[in-house]
Amino acid sequence: MDKIYTVLMVLAALILIYILWCFIEPFILDMDRAVLKRSPADDPSADKIIIRKLPMVTDGISGQPDLRFFFFSDTHAEWCPVTSKRLCNAIRKAHSSTPLDAVIFGGDIVTYPHNIRRGYKYMSDVSNCCKELGIPFYGITGNHDHGFDDNSSAPEFFSLDNTEIALTSHKDGTTVKLAGLTDSGRKNRIWYSRTPCKGSDPVILAVHDPDAFIHLDADARPDFMLSGHLHGGQMKFPFRIEFCVLRRSDKLPNMGAVQGVYNISGTSVFISRGLGCGILPFRFLSLPEATVVEIHL
Ligand SMILES: [Fe+2]
What we know:
Elements: H1 2-24, E1 30-37, E2 51-54, E3 67-72, H2 84-97, E4 102-105, H3 116-133, E5 137-139, E6 158-159, E7 164-168, E8 175-181, E9 203-207, H4 212-215, E10 224-227, H5 241-244, H6 251-255, E11 260-264, E12 267-271, E13 289-296
Parallel strand pairs: 1-13, 3-4, 4-5, 5-6, 8-9, 9-10, 10-12
Antiparallel strand pairs: 2-11, 3-13, 7-8, 11-12
Helix pairs in contact: 2-3
Bound molecules: fe (ii) ion.
Fe (ii) ion (FE2) binds near residues 76, 108, 231, 274 and 278.
């Protein structure tokens, strides 16, 4: 009887520690760096999606990048213990070491539309910070960014939804297209087969849900892609139950691409874990993340 009691007590203690940690983890910001190198193009006629996991910083890449971004995603501002003040401090710090070319937001301002004012306040704080530093601030729509009634205080970032802008490489003046695809939300899902880009310039595509890649025509695949949406699983379970059971409709994570840097069929992809918490206010083994992304053409 004593043994059973001891086992139960240990189990209860472990569950308590687990729950406590799930509450604490959303407060810990992982400010990291991803170095993306352009990959030699695969056979553009190849339909098969091939995924290779890469380290956040690939060996052998040195020197000044062509472009340098600060990328964050999935604020879900209802419960985002990484406050806008902390995020702005991280932006200032990143910009002070080497100037940033842009701050890019990867979508999902809030989880529920009625909380949008809180989300707009968060984005306005980031926008003011970017203005103060003289950094352009771009953003795209996430699958939760729909049904807002109040647009009176809409965030002051430039929307990349289904549009492109031209940037210039610091190294050799090459023109690079930074483009975005909107997310139509999950109810009336629209997948796009083309990006807004035309011509032969290298393309960096910002799109909330990385599954968008699967739906692009093979000859429309970008050179680089920046995404969020998956929250790194948000709460990790054994055997990847969070994706295999709970999010079976997400294709790329079930093929192995969840967070970090990948080569996906010739495209260099970064998938952020995001900052906030969607629906459940917990994280487990999936720290909130904001990332300096360095692009090497
Ligand atoms: Fe999200």
